[in-house]
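pls design
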């Protein structure tokens, strides 16, 4: 089974965008996950609802809203373009933003649940010894919550790879720049005689998904044993 250059580009671009997206998301997921798991503050329900909104909105709507905000004529995008010459929409960065927005609620949900499962009394004990919050988090909370956090990381990575609607709307379907695996499959399906390309990319997508789910299942089992 030989892949064309365009297919390899789509696979590499998907993996690259998903990896960068998760690296950017991780600090925010850890910080906000801890915040919503341990703290009570005004507007908490509203903020969580806004973050989870991409999960219930049609992905195309999410992409359209991103265009309204960050597109070249959007209220923030126009400023960035005119003042700094930065164009976000229909770029590789747009792929990362679109996939991050859709997958972040999944990642955050796992981080929040994992931290809630950690006994808060252990954190309080660490603080009574004069340790700061960051020290307590990274020496007590984070290690104990790590299996759940990794599970969220993996499933968010898979969600990034499968993102289609928001990406095609906000980033476009540009070969070598924004055409990820789902977009490449869609493009091949619209092309007469490209059935083998479609099947190869579908097979890659299925294999990645199965691998991710198996790894997620392994972590769930490990977390249960621990």
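designed seq:
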């Amino acid at each position: 089974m030989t892949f064309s250059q365009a297919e390899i580009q789509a696979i590499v671009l998907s993996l690259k965008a998903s990896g960068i997206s998760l690296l950017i998301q991780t600090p925010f997921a850890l910080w906000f996950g801890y915040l919503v798991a341990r703290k009570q503050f005004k507007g908490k329900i509203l903020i969580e609802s806004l973050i989870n909104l991409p999960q219930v909105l049609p992905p195309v709507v999410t992409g359209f809203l991103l265009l309204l905000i960050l597109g070249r004529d959007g209220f923030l995008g126009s400023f960035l373009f005119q003042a700094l010459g930065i164009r976000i929409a229909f770029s590789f960065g747009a792929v990362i933003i679109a996939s991050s927005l859709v997958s972040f609620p999944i990642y955050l949900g796992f981080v929040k649940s994992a931290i809630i499962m950690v006994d808060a009394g252990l954190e309080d004990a660490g603080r009574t010894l004069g340790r700061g919050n960051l020290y307590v988090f990274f020496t007590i909370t984070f290690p104990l919550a790590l299996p759940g956090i990794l599970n969220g990381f993996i499933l968010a990575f898979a969600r990034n790879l499968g993102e289609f609607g928001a990406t095609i709307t906000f980033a476009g379907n540009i070969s070598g720049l924004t055409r990820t695996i789902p977009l490449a499959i869609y493009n091949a399906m619209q092309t007469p005689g490209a059935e083998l390309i479609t099947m190869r990319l579908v097979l890659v997508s299925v294999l990645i998904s199965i691998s991710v789910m198996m790894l997620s299942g392994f972590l769930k089992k490990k977390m249960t044993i621990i």
